[in-house]
Amino acid sequence: MKRRTAVVSSNLKRAINEVLARGANDPRIRGMITVTDVDITGDLKEAKVRVTVFPEEHESLTMHGLKAATGRIRREAMRRMRIKEMPSIRFVVDEGQKNQARVMELLAKARQEDEARQQSSPVDEQPDAEPAPDTDGGATT
């Protein structure tokens, strides 16, 4: 990635996060929205903005709201960045973050199950028992 592209990407990410933090007028945009990454084409014409939405049940409706509010978000971000030519913006769900969250959930669940299994069935380890003493007094027959 060229330096200019990286700078514009970073600034756009910060500007969109600020715009979204101030709130949107669209009632469909709900939950906590985080811009996780911005991919910009080399000619700086298009930007793919990856977002996560929590809680996940608001994701679909929020994405519709973001797509409808793209023009306003783009104008406000442009004003914050003071950039001459603003790339077009396309919002997409960051599946990588969702997958990472699922893996972390599964690991935590497995750890809890292991701990529960260890607590419910403690290992009965006794030291090796010594041989029982000879009861007939050592007499051989």
Could you explain the architecture of this structure?
The protein is α+β, with helices and mostly antiparallel strands and 141 residues long. The chain has a domain at 3-99: GMP Synthetase, Chain A, domain 3, CATH 3.30.300.20. The protein is 48% helix and 17% strand. The chain contains 4 helices and 3 strands. The protein has a 3-stranded mixed sheet, with helices on both faces. Strand 1 and strand 2 (46-54) form a beta hairpin. Helix 1 crosses helix 3 (70-81). The longest helix has 26 residues, at 95-120. 17% of the residues are buried.
Q: Approximately how much helix is present in the residues?
A: 40-55%
Portion in beta strands: 15-25%
Give the CA-CA distance, first to last residue: 94 Å
**Would you identify the CATH architecture of the domain at 3-99?**
2-Layer Sandwich
State the CATH superfamily name of the domain at 3-99: K homology (KH) domain
Order of helices and strands: HEEHHEH
Shape: elongated
What structural class do helix, strand and pairing data support? alpha+beta
- Largest beta-sheet characterization: 3 strands, mixed
Strand line-up across the major sheet: 1-2-3
Low-confidence stretches: none
In DSSP terms (H or I, runs of 4 or more residues), the helix count works out at: 4
CATH class assignment of the domain at 3-99 = Alpha Beta
Stated plainly, the CATH topology of the domain at 3-99 is called GMP Synthetase, Chain A, domain 3
Cα-atom radius of gyration:
30 Å
**Overall pLDDT metric:** 86
How many β-strand runs? 3
